[in-house]
Design brief:
By secondary structure, the protein is α+β, with helices and mostly antiparallel strands. Helices cover 30% and strands 26% of the residues. The chain is built from 5 helices and 9 strands; from the N terminus they run E-E-H-E-E-H-E-E-E-E-H-H-E-H. It has helices spanning 21-31, 50-61, 107-113, 131-142, 171-184; strands at residues 2-6, 9-13, 36-38, 44-46, 65-74, 77-81, 87-88, 103-106, 146-158. The strands form 2 sheets. Strands 3, 4, 5, 6, 7, 8 and 9 form a 7-stranded mixed β-sheet that branches. The protein has a two-stranded antiparallel sheet with strand order 1-2. A hairpin with a 2-residue loop joins strand 5 (65-74) and strand 6 (77-81). The longest helix is centred in the C-terminal third of the chain and has 14 residues, at 171-184. The chain is globular and about 45 Å long.
C-alpha cells in the first residue's frame, strides 16, 4: 500500500495480486480507516464538490447508507439516473439503478452489519455480475436507515462494447441474472 495527496485529500492505495471484484472490494472494506466509504467503478468520475455534497447529506439525514445519483453517459447520449427527491428506502426495488457506484456509507454502520461482498459472485466467477445488487439487498435487510439521495456526485462513462464482463445476452448472462434474482427473491423459485 502507499499514500499520496491529491487536491488536499490523502489517498491510500492498496495493491493486491488478488483476482476478483468481490474479493478486492472486501479487502478495501476491511482496510477502510475513515468515517465514510464510497463505492465507485472504474468508469466513474466524481464531481468536484462531492465531499461537501456527501457531508451535507449525511448531516441533514443522519442516515447510515445512501445511494447518490449519477449522470450516465453512453456514446452520445446523457441521462440522469435519478431519484426525484431524497427518500428513505423501504423496499429493495427502490435502491439500485446501476449497481454499486454511488453507495456511500458510515464505516460504523457497515461494521455493525458484518456484511461483505459474496466472493462467489462477480468477475472472474461464472456468475459474473450482480455482486453489488446482492450486497445492497443484504444491507437493506440489516439496516433500516438506507436512503436514495437526489444529489448527483459522479458521472458514469459506460460503453458496453468495452465492458469487462458484458458480452451480450448469452447462456451465461441469463444464468447470472437468474442466480442473482434467486438470491434476492428466494421464494420466487
Amino acid at each position: 500500500s502507499y499514500s499520496f495527496i491529491y487536491k488536499g485529500f490523502n489517498v491510500d492505495v492498496i495493491c493486491s495480486d488478488t483476482i476478483g471484484v468481490s474479493k478486492n472490494r472486501n479487502i478495501l472494506l476491511k482496510a477502510l480507516s475513515q468515517e465514510f466509504g464510497l463505492m465507485l467503478d472504474d468508469d466513474c468520475v466524481l464531481s468536484d464538490n462531492y465531499p461537501q455534497t456527501i457531508s451535507d447529506f449525511f448531516g441533514k439525514t443522519n442516515c447510515d447508507f445512501a445511494l447518490f445519483n449519477a449522470i450516465f453517459v453512453d456514446g452520445s447520449s446523457n441521462k440522469l439516473f435519478h431519484n426525484k427527491g431524497t427518500k428513505k428506502v423501504k423496499k429493495f426495488c427502490e435502491i439500485s439503478y446501476a449497481g454499486g457506484p454511488g453507495l456511500c456509507f458510515k464505516k460504523s454502520a457497515l461494521d455493525k452489519t458484518e456484511i461483505l461482498y459474496d466472493e462467489k459472485i462477480g468477475v472472474p466467477n461464472y456468475i459474473e455480475a450482480g455482486e453489488d445488487t446482492v450486497f445492497h439487498f443484504n444491507l437493506l435487510k440489516k439496516s433500516k436507515n438506507f436512503y436514495r439521495a437526489q444529489d448527483v456526485i459522479f458521472t458514469i462513462y459506460d460503453n458496453n462494447f468495452d465492458s469487462s464482463y458484458y458480452k451480450g445476452v448469452d447462456k451465461q448472462y441469463i444464468e447470472t441474472r437468474g442466480y442473482i434474482t434467486k438470491c434476492i427473491h428466494p421464494f420466487a423459485f
